[in-house]
């Protein structure tokens, strides 16, 4: 099935990549503006901040871990809330944020009730996605709205979920749940016996990225499944990983991710003491980071992960997909 394209319009207000940026989707009434905290005075002078809407404060946790943090709020006149949040913690503000995203409506039809509905739904989506630590102390339920308004707001949310990642904001990006969780019970393990000869790629049609499942398992007990969902390498809930990181690589970046996942409860003890289990789907920066965290030591994702239906390594699977899209040129063409 071919995806339906979207036209997103970005405008750099001062002509620089780091300055104020507005974003809109064709035929959507929403309007988004992104700003660094350092540009807050310029932002507050803009007409958009006098509207009713919702906002996202983005930054890093102040506990020293560097974990992404966020706060989601709403307001009748957003600039009043932002002015308050710009103060230090001890004066009732918030220190952690370095960037703000404001979502309003071009037609000025968002009411206070609409904004409260959007705020509640965005908080729920962000908590479900689990990509950032939310500093909101409560999770308010959505207010009661007429059925037609609920439909309009849900469409508004769906468009915001498209446009925010374009601005580098993945707070609301959740993984599309696959039909099976973690290692598939009825799947035939992909291993050396099922792989094609070295240097030769099996001549079979490959599943599309969002339909392919990759497996990583070995005799130590690790057994993980992953999928490429919306362009991100996602390890699935129920996957088994090593419970401890290798003492030989104490300063490895993947080791720090392993520790953070244990601390956050994404990894929890499994039946065997040497293993931990993923309690939810988790997105990694790369297949290698995922393979390393699961293996408890440095590992190559393109070599360790195997596509289940073909037995190809993740690296060979990527190569073959490229070759199927554009067949290699015949050497005889050069003669």
**In which range does the helix fraction lie?**
25-40%
Structural class: alpha+beta
C-alpha geometry: globular
Give the termini distance in whole angstroms.
40 Å
The sequence of SSEs as H and E is EEEHEEHEHEHEEEEHEEEHHEH
Give the DSSP E fraction (strand runs of 2 or more residues).
15-25%
Low-confidence stretches: 176-203
Number of strands: 15
CA radius of gyration is 23 Å
Quote the average pLDDT: 85
Strands of the largest sheet, in order across it? 1-2-3-6-4-5-7
Largest beta-sheet details: 7 strands, mixed
* Count of alpha/pi helices: 8
Keywords:
335 residues; 26% helix; alpha+beta; 8 helices; 5-stranded antiparallel sheet; globular; 15 strands
Task: Give a summary of the structure in a few sentences.
Helix content is 26%, strand content 22%. The chain is α+β, with helices and mostly antiparallel strands.
What features would you describe in this structure?
- The chain has 335 residues and is of the alpha+beta class.
- The protein is 26% helix and 22% strand.
- It has helices spanning 40-44, 78-85, 112-129, 147-166, 253-264, 287-295, 301-304, 314-325, and strands at 8-12, 21-25, 30-36, 53-60, 68-75, 97-105, 133-134, 214-217, 223-229, 232-235, 240-242, 267-269, 275-278, 282-284, 306-307.
- Strand 9 and strand 10 (232-235) form a beta hairpin.
- The strands form 3 sheets. The protein has a 7-stranded mixed β-sheet.
